[in-house]
Design brief:
The structure holds two protein chains of two kinds. Chain A is of the alpha+beta class. Helix content of chain A is about 35%, strand content about 25%. In chain A, helix 8 runs parallel beside helix 10 and helix 23 crosses helix 25. The longest helix of chain A is centred in the first third of the chain and has 21 residues. Chain A is globular. The two termini of chain A are about 45 Å apart. Chain B is an alpha/beta fold. Chain B has one domain: Rossmann fold, CATH 3.40.50.880. In chain B, the strands form two sheets. Chain B has a nine-stranded mixed sheet with strand order 2-1-3-4-11-10-9-6-7, sandwiched between helices. A two-stranded antiparallel ribbon of chain B has the order 5-8. The two termini of chain B are about 20 Å apart. Classes of the chains: A alpha+beta, B alpha/beta. At the A-B interface, helix 8 and helix 10 of A face helix 1 and strand 6 of B.
Chain lengths: ~750, ~230
């Protein structure tokens, strides 16, 4: 790439070297013929390649993202800023966003995952919020080959390495395994922050003459043009693209975070805007800040703190070195900012200023290296309305539900509990510090992680969810289900869902079948969000998740945050004591296509997805939250992968409590994955009140017991499993597959 | 009682400790930068957990060279109480205020869990609030909590009753199941578990309170100072 920087504008045109940077011929001609009306030099082309990448411009996904429901009176800032903001009363707000780091994690899993975490944290504190929790949604291939187990251990170590060191608790997430993710793992990190309204920041550079200050780590040659790398499809030939992966330093970020928050809190009057240098580094942060404010900007690149020698303008602008931020500060107040950063031992350097007009000008070694309209970079990337075509796989589906036959139900249950997607993830999440900041009320392993808000009686519940198998079978309904399950997790924890962020992990949008999945999923997500009153407030798009032409399952990760109004409402999934009544809220049907049981028994995920009713979903959630807020519920657990019996078993595991249940359902339906259900336990004292509340929306199943047995009498057979044995299998499966040392 | 909490660049449990002391125990505490060189106005020093200087080189290895650590050494030499929690323990061993070293966990992975401990010596100024041999649960969260010392030192630690806390199920490979020790004089405690994380029922338990209430009670009884 370096040698290309010598290319003249004419040679750039003639050799079409811009293609290597991810720009198409049409895009190049748009720049030459309409935007600049001249030939751009290599640096300028670099700027466009970064800013017009999918990662920065959403050029392929914009028409889809427009369909999202983003309304709601609680929304203080929606998509478009660094992260979305939702009001939670008392002058406070919650800020959250998720981001994918799939491609970097595939080639360099430790650093890829670590810098994914680092990047999303910067997005949160750049809004003025204190980061209070992290979550991670991960997808891997079957953990049976050494490459996959290596990826898992390194990604998990990278997440922990960053979050543990910076001191933000990792309190939740989700993890699933399917062969489609083998060469294209998904690493989505979510960060949640707490904001006082008065601290709310914007990434803007207003006021001619105001200073542009670069703070944090020095710029090196790492992650150069990572944004367009991340936006490209993967193949084996490219698999060694390590130079496009950044290296993280959580210690540096801890200092940077503390310093930035100090400026935000204590120097409010002089801070005009602040933004993270994320994808496409310096160019995207500076151009976006200027464009958003309707300003021009000029930067002197000689002043940029540099880690390596003889860096070119191209490299300086497109490096994705980590732990850097850009500030716009009132003219004359620069020293005040420098003093804060000096205290933390960090670089703080004025590298430019806000200018009149709308040009974006870069000077390097006294030469004007780039001179382009700032909006052309930040807002005028072409938008593509891609063609959508219903994939053949959906037309070829069997329309009937898979009909499992179970000779030995307890053996099936034991086997199911050891499937990697179902099995306990404790051995992995135990490597994350989930308690630092001492606010964690519910640690990883329940439906949602919960942190209390100091000096209030409130708490925040948060979760990530999506079942790609459901979307593979029906992208629209699968999208609805992803939102619904996230909301069930929040409600089961005692929270009112507030809103969502997402990472839309899909295949190549230029393939009509892949674009169809994206478009359908977005519509499903939007519909469910509107019905459940959880607007989309932020998110990220990761397309081209393909390797050697094979796409992953459509996997739009949903990150949801809910408000628990009173700490007494915090509810966990564990059965609390013997002699509590056990119920299932919602109805159960023979829904097996896309289920864990289908995959386990047939090795496949196939057939038409079972039905889903958003109205029943909302109603069951409403009833459960009402029951929790009335103080009637001892435990609540969302029914998801593995069905009713898996949910019940997990509720038994926490405190080693047994159950004695009787049901009119056939045994096999205890494995069905019908949506909109919860397993709830209620003390005898509250039984009548609970039944009066739920009326016919739930079914009484039996009692918790002081035995070590899960006893179930179904319509057609009896089965039983010792709780301790089942728990051991469930907890031991992943460590065994990953060959972890104790 | 007035407690000094040195905050090293990279410390991340300093505020948790501060909240535990002020909000739960109503103990006066100050967060101090590493440039502070005089601690004479304080009754106790508690080094917080975290990743001082990013744990670069070796956990605690850089923090020991800060000006405030010279002050902590002086402070300890007067017999006043010094506690190091997690990274604080690592710093104390690096600074030579406690014997031994903390190595990477045997599993080579970071571990965050609730750990069962036995109070092996409840006669130190940090543990009188506990019953003899009492079993308590405290959170651990570390990648390098595997305590090591040679056999002679271990024998000495045992003979001098310097082992304050032992793990019931050794999670990290520590020699002698050691979770926390005091120096020979009995006024410097290092422990890997986090007592400041176990001071509220809401967050899972209050077994950590004893470390602070012991300190508080014994601060008013100068005679207990060893």
């Amino acid at each position: 790439m370096l040698k290309n920087t010598q290319l003249t504008p004419e040679a750039l045109r003639d050799t079409q070297a811009y293609r290597e940077l991810g720009l198409s011929a049409d895009e190049y001609h748009l720049i030459t013929d309409q935007v600049l009306k001249r030939l751009p030099n290599y640096t300028e082309i670099g700027l466009f390649s970064g800013m017009w990448s999918e990662h920065c411009s959403y050029k392929n996904s914009k028409p889809v993202l427009k369909k999202f429901w983003t309304e709601g009176e609680q929304v203080l800032a929606g998509p478009g800023e660094g992260a979305g903001i939702i009001d939670i009363g008392d002058g406070q707000a919650v800020v959250f966003k998720a981001e994918s780091h799939n491609h970097p994690s595939a080639v360099e899993p430790y650093e890829g995952a670590a810098t994914g975490v680092g990047g999303i944290i910067r997005d949160i504190f750049s809004m003025g919020a204190k980061p209070v929790a992290l979550l991670d949604s991960l997808r891997f291939g079957e953990p049976q080959d050494t490459q996959t187990t290596y990826l898992i251990s390194q990604v998990v170590a990278g997440i922990g390495g960053y979050g543990n060191c910076i001191g933000i608790p990792t309190i939740g997430g989700d993890m699933a395994f399917d062969a489609c993710y083998q060469k294209n793992p998904l690493v989505n990190a979510m960060c949640v922050g707490l904001l006082e309204h008065q601290d709310m920041q914007k990434g803007q550079a207003t006021g001619v003459g105001n200073a542009i200050i670069y703070v944090g780590a020095k710029t090196g040659r790492d992650g150069i043009n990572g944004a367009s790398f991340a936006s490209a499809e993967f193949n084996d030939a490219k698999a060694t693209q390590r130079s496009a992966v950044q290296v993280g330093d959580p210690f540096m970020e801890k200092l940077l975070m503390d310093a930035c928050l100090e400026v935000i809190h204590d120097h409010r009057d002089i801070l005009v805007g602040i933004q993270d240098m994320g994808a496409a580094g310096l160019v995207s942060s500076s151009a976006e800040m200027a464009s958003k404010a309707g300003s021009g900007m000029k930067l002197n690149l000689d002043l940029v703190p540099q880690r390596e020698k003889e860096m070119t303008a191209f490299e300086l602008m497109l490096s994705e070195s980590q732990e850097r931020m850009l500030l716009c500060v009132k003219d004359g107040a620069e020293k005040e900012v420098h003093a804060v950063f000096k205290k933390y031992g960090l670089d703080s350097v004025v590298i430019g200023e806000v200018t009149p007009g709308h040009q974006y000008q870069l000077f390097h070694h006294g030469v004007l290296e780039a001179d382009v309209p700032v909006d052309a970079l930040a807002t005028q990337a072409p938008v593509y309305q891609r063609e959508a075509r219903r994939p053949q796989r959906l037309d070829e589906q069997v329309q009937t539900q898979f009909e499992p036959e179970l000779a030995n139900v307890s053996a099936t249950l034991k086997q199911l509990l050891q499937q990697p997607t179902i099995a306990s993830k404790r051995s992995l999440f135990e490597t994350y510090d989930s308690q630092v900041q001492t606010n964690t009320v519910v640690q990883p392993g329940s439906d949602a992680g919960v942190i209390r808000i100091r000096q209030t009686d409130k708490a925040l519940a948060m979760t990530t969810d999506v079942n790609g198998r459901y979307l593979y079978l029906n992208p629209r309904m699968g999208g609805e289900m992803a939102v619904a399950e996230a909301a069930r997790n929040i409600v089961a924890s005692g929270g009112q869902p507030l809103g969502i962020t997402d990472c839309l992990n899909f295949g190549n949008p230029e393939k009509p079948e892949q674009f169809y999945d994206l478009d359908e999923a977005a519509q499903g997500i939007s519909r469910a969000c509107q019905r459940l009153n959880t607007p989309v407030i932020s998110g990220n798009v990761s397309l081209n998740n393909e390797s050697n032409g094979e796409a992953i399952y459509p996997t739009p990760m949903i990150g949801m945050v809910g408000l628990i109004k009173h700490l007494r409402d915090v509810t966990t999934q564990d059965f609390k004591q013997a002699s509590d009544a056990v119920y299932v809220l919602g109805t159960t049907a023979a829904d097996f296509n896309g289920s864990e049981l289908q995959k386990m028994l047939t090795g496949q995920v196939s057939g038409e997805l079972f039905d889903f009713d958003l109205t029943a979903e909302a109603e069951n959630q409403r009833i459960l939250l009402q029951a929790i807020q009335a103080g009637l519920v001892a435990s609540a657990h969302d029914v998801s992968e593995g069905g009713l019996i898996t949910t019940i078993a997990e509720s038994c595991f926490g405190r080693g409590i047994g159950v004695n249940l009787t049901s009119q359902l056939p045994a096999v339906q205890f494995f069905a994955e019908t949506q909109s259900r919860f397993v709830v336990s209620v003390s005898m004292a509250n039984k009548d009140a609970f039944e009066a509340l739920i009326k016919n929306q739930g079914t009484y199943l039996g009692m918790t017991t002081a035995t070590d047995q899960i006893w179930v009498q179904t319509a057609d057979q009896f089965f039983d499993v010792p709780v301790s044995e089942a728990k051991e299998l469930w907890e031991g499966a992943l460590p065994c597959l990953l060959k972890q040392r104790a | 009682m007035k407690v000094a909490i040195p905050v090293f660049p990279g410390s991340n449990c300093d505020e948790d400790l501060y909240h535990a002391l002020w909000d739960i125990l109503q103990i006066t505490a100050d967060l101090l930068p590493v440039t502070v060189t005089n601690l004479s106005q304080y009754d106790a020093v508690i080094l917080p957990g975290g990743f001082s200087y990013g744990d670069y080189l070796r956990s605690g290895a850089i923090a020991r060279f800060t000006p405030i650590m010279a002050a902590v050494k002086d402070f300890a030499s007067t017999g006043k109480p010094v506690v190091g929690i997690c990274n604080g323990f690592q710093i104390l061993t690096e600074a030579g205020l406690l014997p031994g070293a903390l190595r990477a966990n045997q599993s080579s992975r970071f571990i965050c869990q609730n750990s069962e401990l036995q109070v092996t010596n409840n006669q130190t100024i940090f543990s009188t609030a506990y019953q003899p041999q009492e079993h308590i649960k405290l959170p651990i969260a570390h990648g390098e909590g595997n305590y090591y010392c040679d056999l002679t030192t271990l024998a000495e630690l045992r003979a001098q009753k310097q082992i304050v806390f032992e793990y019931v199920d050794n999670p990290n490979g520590s020699v002698g199941n050691i979770a926390g020790i005091v120096n020979r004089r009995g006024n410097v405690l290092g422990m890997m578990p986090h007592p400041e994380r176990a001071v509220e029922v809401l967050l899972g338990g209050t077994d950590g309170l004893g470390v602070f209430t012991s300190l508080l009670a014994n601060n008013q009884r100068e005679d207990v100072h060893a």
